[in-house]
Amino acid sequence: MGSYQNYHVMVGDTLVKLTDPNPKSKHIYQVGEECHLVFDPDEVHVL
């Protein structure tokens, strides 16, 4: 682990790749652990 933590999350049949900047002061998720995602419409850019 370095200055960021990468996660690969399956949402239904879709793989979502996430990057958590500065995880040192946050929770590090383990494989199989439940998490919640919140998307800020002003910060998400759909490609």
Summarize it.
By secondary structure, the chain is mainly beta. It is built from no helices and 2 strands. The chain is globular and about 30 Å long.
What does this structure look like?
With 47 residues, this protein is an all-beta fold. It is 0% helix and 34% strand. It has one domain. The chain has a two-stranded antiparallel ribbon. It starts with a strand and ends in a 26-residue tail after the last strand. The mean pLDDT is 80.
Task: Report the span from N to C terminus.
Answer: 28 Å
In what order do the strands lie side by side in the largest sheet?
Answer: 1-2
Global outline: globular
Q: How many structural domains can be distinguished in the coordinates?
A: 1
Strand content: 25-35%
Sheet with the most strands, sense and barrel status: 2 strands, antiparallel
Helix-and-strand structural type: mainly beta
